[in-house]
Every structure is written in structure tokens, then in C-alpha cells.
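As described in the Methods, two query proteins were run sequentially through the folding procedure within a single session, without resetting any intermediate state between them. The first query and its resulting C-alpha cells are shown here.
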Amino acid sequence: MFGYVVVNKPELKIREFHEYQSYYCGLCRTLKQRWGIRGQISLSYDMTFLAILLSLLYEPVEEELAERCVAHPMEKHRARHNEMIAYAADMNLMLTWYKCRDDLKDEKRVVKGIYGMSLGSGIDEIKNIYERQHRAVQDNMEKLAFLEGECCEDIDNLSGCFGHLLEEIFVVKQDEWESCLRRMGFHMGKFVYLLDAYDDLEQDRKKGCFNPFLHRAGKEGFDEWIKEILTMTAVEFASAFERLPLVEHVDILRNIIYSGIWTRYEEVRKKRMEGNGGR
């Protein structure tokens, strides 16, 4: 996955970070239990956010464990498990599989391709259980690949593909919260696509790969323009988020939405500025 939907750890209270970690570890544990180490490798911060969001919204029956793992060998740590974390694990694996497939096709990343193939049996199961979500991922990834292959520079259309993809993934149940979750997922998907393109800009230029910003990057005010469109997109998913009836641990999600994603943006921007000699 992309890894842009993260917490700003220094701004979290210690208790809040431990709660966030319990969801992250729970997602990691679920991936390992269901698909072994190959599933665990796919763990992402992005789907941790979804696991927390849906858990707080639907309040499923939850199990909490204390255990050691490779990442925390010295002491036991908390790991949650519930049906929403399991759902996020399935979506995490499906998105990883499609990302590996595209990396192999577009950039000839053989290692990624081999890893993606190792996930095949799990993906077949997920496709059958979540037909709506799978169809949305497949259709929008194919549309995105076509647009990128045509060197389309319509960023609204391009980012909209990933927006529609994440929109369906955010909707685990078609109920009274569907419209809010759709709006939130759509605009968060656009944000992730745009920030990822901005992050990969110089690398794509060197490799001769498609990037929707290649022809705009040299123009005056480009970086300010990027921040402006990211801000407008972030406002949309934050607005949808605030309409959800969330209470417990809501400050963790607010940390991610209003601070965490921007720490990642600042890291990307700093890297770009240093690469351009500070300009």
C-alpha cells in the first residue's frame, strides 16, 4: 500500500498511541493468522485507519489479546480482533495484490510480481466473499491503467479512479452511514493518489514512467498548487468524517485526518525541495 494515512505520533497522548497500536497490531496479527508471513508483509497504515474507523462506527464484539511478536519480542503488547479488523485485512490483501500486479506490468518489478502471485489463493477467496468491492477495485484499476497508458493529465479523472475504488472499500455495509463513508473514501482515495504521484514525481521522471504532474512540475507555483488541491480534497473527507457518530478514540482519527496525513505531505515536500537544491 501507500502509507500516507498515518498518525502524527508526537501529537498523540501516550494512552491514545497505545490504543492506535492495538489496532495496528490486531491487523498485523489477523493478516498473519489468515495468510502467514506473506499476508503480514502487506500490512499498511492506510488500512489500519479503516479498521479503526469501522470498529468505532459499528462497535463489533471484540477480543483483545496480549502477546509477543517479532516486532515486539521483549514484552507483551495488546492486539485487538473483531470483524471490522478482519474486513480491513481482506481489503489490505486485495489492494496489495493489485498493486503488485501493476508494479510488475508497468515497472517490471519482478520481486513484487512474485510476491503478488504468492497471495493468489487468498485473493480468490476474497473475490468471492466481497464481489462488490472486488469489482470496483478491478474496474477502477483497469480504467486507471488505461488513462495512464494514454498519458492522461486530467488529475480529477485519474485520482477519481482511486477515489471510486476506496469509496467501495469504505462501505462495508449498505446502511444509513453509506453516503458519509462513500464521500470519505472517495476523497481520501483521491488524496492518496495525488500525494503518491507527487512523491514519485522525480523517480518517475528518471525512469521514464508516467506521472500526471510531469509537465506541470517546472512551472512557477507548482508546489503551492499541489498543496492547494490536496487541501481541498482533505477538507472534503474531513467534512464527511465529522458527520459520523464517533465518540471513543475519535481523537486518534482526528490526529490522522488533521495532522498525520500532513506530516507525510511535509516529508514528501521536504524531500522534493532537497532534491531541487532547496528551490
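Immediately afterward, the second query was submitted; its sequence and C-alpha cells are:
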Amino acid sequence: MNIEAHRTIDIFQTLKPEWNDLLRRSYADDIFLTWEWQSTWWDAYAPADAPTVLVCRDDSGQLMGIAPLFDVDGVYRIIGGEDVTDYLDLIVDATKSGAVLQAIVQYIGEQKMALDLLNIPAGSPTLTDFADCLRSNGAAVQVSEHEVCPLIELPDKWDGYLTLLDKKQRHEVRRKLRRAIGGEEDITWYTLDETHDLEDALARFMVLMAASDPEKADFLKDEQHVTFFKRFVRLAMANGWLQLNFLTVDGDDAAAYLNFDYNGRILVYNSGLALDDYSHLSPGIVLLAHNIKYAIENGYKVFDFLRGDEVYKYHMGGKDTVIYRLTTDS
């Protein structure tokens, strides 16, 4: 394997034709590692003077690995950061992972760099094979639980999903759905498609997002966050990865979810809620239930709530998976 380090932003454009193809061949095909996410994140945040993208090719010149890194005071981190990115990893052809990982380890060792890699999913070879390579090259490696990502492994039928819930929550979901259908208010829900104005919908979503939580409101006061958010949502829409939906009450927006539809999974990225006006109708739970039902009826196998241990995720059937942090000394 031949490995080169690229330290200019031009590398994103250079690798664009090959990046997502490698990702699909990798053991880490997540939306947060797509060319669109990684390059947009760098454009918005650029936390270092330059990226350090390690590019690994075989003797024929085929791209076999990408380590999208940046250097902070002698420590390599994965492009994507922590604030907005839920899963991170090295991008490695699954059929040649051993040789690629060894090449990356050798380069990092020669540079005498430390590592601080966050949000690595359980089961990733980065936590086992890569860590073993690092240890074999003399590095002191620590792997620790970092956070949880609750998800639902979806059954084939809606009734099967309801049996996953405890008796109380099953009753609550059914009650809230009945109330939404049979009440006096006109309650509708829809998912954005090509007939809708994305810019208008995104603006409305951000209003609901800010209204739902003071922390989200503060998040949206940061221009870097807003820039990144808007740019990537447009790219997600263009690539067929966006599932943005709204629940309205008498024509007014009451709840919204911004999900990603990627690699056979629905990923719940963010949400918004008009807390004061429609809380008696539980619009957030009603819309979430419809999203889960849609996923089941359309053959999705995983409904992923992403990072965070908020109670509603468990009430709706989420079970914890763990993401890890891998660190080394220089």
C-alpha cells in the first residue's frame, strides 16, 4: 500500500469522484463520512490551518483508504468534530483493511502524532484491528465508551413494533395517535418532496427547532452551525438522503423531524416543536410514531436516534448502542 498525506483543501475536490465509492466498499458506510458531509464540515468549521487527509492506494492506483484527519497541537482528530457529527471512523476498503490500517499506523508513528478519535461505532475494526496495529507499533492505546446511540431494530409489521414497547408506552402511543385522528383539530403530516420549497421548509424547521429547546436556540445563534446545517441539508436533498417532515395543526406547524435516509437506515438528526401551543396533542410523539411506521412499511431495518440518552428515545423502543473514543500518546 502506498500512502500520502495531503494538507490542502484541494484534496476534497481531488477525491470527490472516488470518495463515496470507497465509502460504499468500506466497513463504515455512514452519512457522516460521505464526501458531502466531510467537505461541508471542513468548509464551515476549518478547525486547523489545513486538513491532514491520509490517502492510501494499492499498486494499481486504486483508492483503498482515507483517514480524514486534522492536527490540533500534535493530536490527530477525525474531520467531523463532535458537536454535529454522530458517527466517525476511518474509511477503509473492507477487503484490504489489514494492509490499509497498517499503512496508516506506520505513517502516524513516523510523524510521532497522538490520536484522539471520537464517535467510533461498536463493532468497527478501528477499535480492534487498528488498535492492535497501534499497540504492535509501540503506542499506548486507550479505548473507552464515549456516548450512547439508542436505536430500534425494526420488525416487519407495525403491530410487531408495538410489542417492543412496555405496556404503558404501547398504550400511550395508541392513545396519542387516536386523539390526533379523532379530535376537533385538523391534524396533518407530510414529508418534503420536490413539490415543496426547501428553503421555506428549512426556515420553518429552524423556527420550530429553536422553539423546542433553549440549547437548540443557542446552537442556531452560531453562524458556523447555521452555515453547515443549511449547506448539508441542501446536499442531502439533492442526493435523496433527506427526510424532512412536518405535523401541522389547523395549518400551523406544530412539530417537525429532520431525518436522514441513508444505507437502509433512518437517522433521527434533529427535531423541532411548538411547545406551548399544541402540547396537549403530543405532536412530536405523533409525528415520530408516523416516521417509525413509515420506516417499517417501507422495509427499513434500523431506526437510529443517534447520540444522546433522552428519555423519549427509550419510551419509543430505543435500545442503547455504544460509540467509543480511541486515544494514544505521541
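The radius of gyration is 21 Å. We note this only descriptively and draw no conclusion about the first query from it.
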